[in-house]
UniProtKB/TrEMBL annotation:
Residues 22-253 form the ABC transporter domain. This is Multiple sugar transport system ATP-binding protein. Pfam families: ABC_tran. SUPFAM superfamilies: MOP-like, P-loop containing nucleoside triphosphate hydrolases. Keywords: ATP-binding, Nucleotide-binding, Sugar transport, Transport. One of its GO terms (biological process) is carbohydrate transport. It comes from Micromonospora cremea. The keyword ATP-binding applies. Coiled coil: none annotated.
C-alpha cells in the first residue's frame, strides 16, 4: 500500500492555485463527421471526489474526459472548473494532470527524468526537483528503478511512473483514461487499490474513465454510467448497484448479471399485484408501497429484475414467494457455483442498442383507462399512486432502442460443491423487497426515488 503523509491541498508544487471541482452543464459533443459522442451531459464532480465514468466502448467517456482536459471543445454547453467557464481555456492553463492508458512515457529518458519532467518544464531547480522525485517515487514503490528506462520496466511499474509524473506537481484535479487496461488481471486489482488509496490520501479530485465495472464499483466515490453519449445514472456504488435508474444500468452492473424477466401486471385491488412471469407468478402485497407504482401498469408488461442475491434455494414445498424450475446447467466458479434455472419465463436481454418492451401502442391508453377506474374506485389511493409515480420515476430518458427476448435462465447462487446437477429441480425463495421494476422504456418504476 502506498503511504503519503503530506497533506496536499489545492496549491501545487510551485505554489500555484489548482482546480478542484468540475461541472458539466448540458455538454454536447458532435464530431465533424456528425458523430454525436456526448449528448447533453450534466455532471458535478466535487472537491476531493473520486468520480468514475463507466460505460461500454464508444459510449463517450473519453470524449467527456478530453473536454474537461481541454483536448476537445464542446459543441454546446459549458465546462466549469472551480465554477469558472473554461470552454476557451487552453489545456496547459487548466492546471489538470492526466494519465492515459498507454502511459505515454518518454522512452529515451530515465524513470527519474520522466517523473521530474513537469517540474523541469516549470523551471524548478535540480536539487528540490530531485528531492521531490525521490519522495514521489518511494511513495509509489518505484524508488529503486529511477535510473532505468521505461523499456526496462514491467507494465505495473510503467503505470506507476506515469502516475508519478502526473502527481509530481500536486494537481488538484487528476484525469485518468483507462490507466489499467493494459495490465493483467492481478496487477489491475493491486493497482486499483493503490490508485484510489493514493488519490484519497492526497485529497485530489479524480475523474477516472473505465469500462470495467469492478474497477468502478471498488474505486469510486460516485459512478456516472454512460451509454451512447447519454448519462444514465450517477450515484455511489451502492446506489447505482442497489437502485439502478434504468434497465440498462441494471443489466450492465453486477456479476452474474441481474435476472430481467418479462412480467404481466394484474392488480387485485386492496389485496396484491400479480406479476405473471409466464408459468409462474409472484405477488406484491398491496401494503408494499411499491405496489402502487407497479399498479399503474395493470394489463401491461413490465420488466422485473432480481439479482442472484435475492434468490435463496429452499425445499420444493416451501410456502411463500417461491419460484420453481429445473437446472439447465451449472457453472463452477471456485468460491461458488451458479445454477441457471428454466422457470418457464421470458428474459429481456438488453443489448448495446437499447431495451424496450414492444407493448401495444394502446398500452398508454390502457394505463390511463386503468387510472381512471382506480380513481373512481379508490379516490385517494390513486392520488398517492400518481404522486409516487410522477415524483419518483427517473427523469433519465433511456434510449428506446431494441432488446431481445429469450427463454429465461434464472441465475441462482449455490455453494461451491452443490448436491444438485443439471436436470435437477430447484426451488428458490424470492426476496420481494429486493426486486427491481422497469417500464417499457427502460426507466425505473419506483417510489421514494433517491
Ligand atoms: N475524432 C473523432 N471523430 C469522430 N468520431 C469520434 C472521434 N473521437 C471519438 N469519436 C466517436 O465518438 C464516440 C465516443 O468515443 P469515445 O472515445 O469518447 O468513447 P469511449 O467510451 O471512451 O470508448 P473507449 O472505451 O473505446 O475509448 C465513438 O462513437 C467514437 O467512435
Amino acid at each position: 500500500m502506498i503511504l503519503v503523509t503530506v497533506f496536499w491541498g489545492s496549491v501545487d508544487e510551485l505554489g500555484e492555485e489548482t482546480v478542484t471541482t468540475v461541472a458539466l452543464k448540458d455538454v454536447t459533443k458532435v464530431f465533424k463527421d456528425g458523430t454525436l459522442a456526448v449528448d447533453s451531459i450534466n455532471l458535478d464532480v466535487n472537491d476531493g471526489e473520486f468520480m468514475v465514468l463507466l460505460g461500454p466502448s464508444g459510449c463517450g467517456k473519453s470524449t467527456v474526459l478530453r473536454m474537461i482536459a481541454g483536448l476537445e471543445d464542446p459543441t454546446q454547453g459549458a465546462v466549469l472548473l472551480d465554477g469558472e467557464l473554461a470552454n476557451d481555456l487552453p489545456p496547459r492553463d487548466r492546471k489538470i494532470a492526466m494519465v492515459f492508458q498507454d502511459f505515454a512515457l518518454y522512452p529515451h529518458m530515465t524513470v527519474g527524468d520522466n517523473i521530474a519532467f513537469p517540474l523541469r518544464l516549470a523551471g524548478v531547480e535540480p536539487t528540490p526537483r530531485g528531492e521531490r522525485v525521490t519522495d514521489v517515487a518511494s511513495a509509489l514503490g518505484i524508488g529503486d528503478v529511477l535510473a532505468r528506462k521505461p523499456g526496462q520496466l514491467s507494465g505495473g511499474q510503467r503505470q506507476r511512473v506515469a502516475m508519478g509524473r502526473a502527481i509530481i506537481r500536486r494537481p488538484g484535479l487528476f484525469l485518468m483514461d483507462e490507466p489499467l487496461s493494459n495490465l493483467d488481471c492481478g496487477l489491475r486489482a493491486e493497482l486499483r487499490a493503490e490508485i484510489s488509496g493514493l488519490t484519497r490520501e492526497l485529497g485530489v479530485t479524480t475523474v477516472y474513465v473505465t469500462h470495467d465495472q469492478a474497477e468502478a464499483l471498488t474505486m469510486a466515490d460516485r459512478v456516472a454510467i454512460m451509454r451512447r453519449g447519454v448519462l444514465q445514472d450517477v450515484g455511489t456504488p451502492t446506489q447505482v448497484y442497489g437502485r439502478p435508474a434504468t434497465l440498462y444500468v441494471a443489466a450492465f452492473l453486477g456479476s452474474p448479471r441481474m435476472n430481467l424477466l418479462e412480467a404481466s401486471v394484474y392488480v387485485h385491488l386492496d389485496r396484491y399485484v400479480t406479476l405473471n412471469l409466464g408459468e409462474q407468478s409472484l405477488y406484491l402485497p398491496w401494503d408494499d408501497i411499491r405496489s402502487r407504482a407497479v399498479a399503474h401498469y395493470h394489463g401491461e408488461r413490465i420488466v422485473v429484475g432480481m439479482r442472484a442475491e435475492a434468490l435463496t434455494p429452499v425445499s420444493p414445498d416451501s410456502p411463500g414467494d417461491v419460484l420453481r424450475g429445473r437446472i439447465r446447467y451449472l457453472e463452477h466458479h471456485g468460491h461458488e457455483s451458479l445454477a441457471f434455472l428454466d422457470i418457464g419465463a421470458t428474459a429481456i436481454v438488453v443489448d448495446e442498442m437499447g431495451a424496450r418492451l414492444d407493448n401495444p401502442p394502446e398500452g398508454q391508453r390502457g394505463l390511463r383507462r386503468f387510472s381512471s377506474v382506480m380513481q373512481r374506485l379508490t379516490g385517494k389511493a390513486v392520488e398517492a399512486a400518481d404522486d409516487a409515480a410522477g415524483g419518483t420515476r427517473t427523469s433519465v430518458l433511456p434510449d428506446p432502442g431494441r432488446h431481445h427476448r429469450r427463454p429465461a435462465e434464472l441465475a441462482v447462487r449455490l455453494a461451491p460443491y452443490p448436491a444438485v446437477a443439471a436436470g435437477h429441480p430447484l426451488a428458490v425463495a424470492v426476496r420481494m423487497d429486493a426486486l427491481h421494476f422497469f417500464d417499457e422504456r427502460g426507466g425505473r418504476i419506483d417510489v421514494g426515488w433517491r
